[in-house]
Predict the structure.
Amino acid sequence: MITLVNGSCRLELFEGRDDFYQGTRFDRSGLPDSVQWEGVEMAGRWFERYDPFLHDAVCGPAEEFDALGFGDAAPGQAFIKPGVGLLRRPDEAPYDRFRLYEIIEPGSWEVESGRAYATFRQTLKGAYEYTKQIVLTGPDSFEIRHSFASEGLGGQVYNHNFWTFSRYVSGPSRTIDFAFRPEGDWRSAYDSVGLTASGIRFCRELQKGESVYMGNIHSAGAQGSPYAMTLGEGDLRIEINADVPALRTVFWANHRVACLEPYNSFGPLARWTIRYRFSKI
């Protein structure tokens, strides 16, 4: 475990080689176990059942890359998941992010850390070098800085943002706002949640076992949107922005977490940074 501290901001990160998360969905580098600010656990373990091979047994800001080359791979051949490694396609079934795939080659990992930063570097020989650096930039803020270098690889990546706000229940006290008027596609007609002129609001608490989903959230009348959003719980706020545009955003919530999942693209030589800032109103 790596612990980063800057004033009242504290992050506890898994090294990736400690095997807490052994799924093949999320980037394994720098996964947090806990994100704390002013004594409040802003992100922590939200799942009720822990299994290291469970696809979403992760906390806090967790990122997933596209499965690169999956469609071109025949059963038994390899495809790539940055942050995981070289995986094997087992059969003719389409890619399923909830499925556990065999890892053929995890690549080599280097980890370096100081009091307020941690750097994770994965090298998959002949394919790519991927670096993620998590830096506490102040007593109320941190950044996730990425670089990706390859010969011709590219796709999309998103951050799942599993914020728990000290284990509050998803409901009317949870607020989500964008820097634009949002529109998107609800999976079903819900009586618990809806869009406003600036974001998403709940009209009641979600019950255990209940979930809601909206895909393709973007600025009304335009594809894509600024990578800028704010999540709130009571008087607590988390501001999220990045130096890349959001291609779209997905919203998913259950009774424990209400997650925004902004997507951005990456190419053969790419750098992008996601910034987080905590505050109270």
